[in-house]
Automatic annotation (TrEMBL):
Highest taxon of the lineage: Bacteria
Protein name: DUF485 domain-containing protein
Keywords associated with the record: Membrane, Transmembrane, Transmembrane helix
Entry's transmembrane regions: 30-53, 65-86
PANTHER family registered for this protein in UniProt: INTEGRAL MEMBRANE PROTEIN-RELATED, MEMBRANE PROTEIN
Length: 112
């Protein structure tokens, strides 16, 4: 009969705990909406480029800058903005909830 692994058992127990479930819910309340917003924004960019290229060809102020270039640059700006928002959110909201769980797992590992 194989030996039981106390760390594995503790991990499974932690995943079932209300604290861990709260951590997962907290994570999903940020990640899911951000993912949907970004994917919708990216899909709009791709669809407009594919089906309305004349829209992206509109020049801004008579210069060589057009809407397609601005939308493309907007994709980069959006990526960096979401990254900064996530970092700030994680430091303020997610990490304080995750830290006690991480310490608990570290204590279980050290006791092993």
């Amino acid at each position: 009969m194989p030996e039981s692994d106390p760390i594995a058992e503790r991990s499974v127990a932690m995943q079932r705990s209300p604290e861990f479930q709260r951590l997962r819910r907290t994570f999903m309340t940020f990640i899911l909406p951000m993912t949907i917003v970004f994917l919708a924004w990216y899909l709009a960019y791709v669809l407009i480029a594919g089906f309305a290229p004349d829209f992206f060809a509109i020049r801004i102020g008579g210069s060589n800058i057009n809407l397609g270039l601005l939308f493309g640059l907007g994709q980069f700006v959006t990526t960096f903005a979401i990254t900064m928002l996530y970092s700030r959110w994680a430091n303020r909201t997610y990490d304080p909830i995750a830290e006690p769980l991480a310490h608990e797992m570290e204590r279980a590992e050290a006791a092993r």
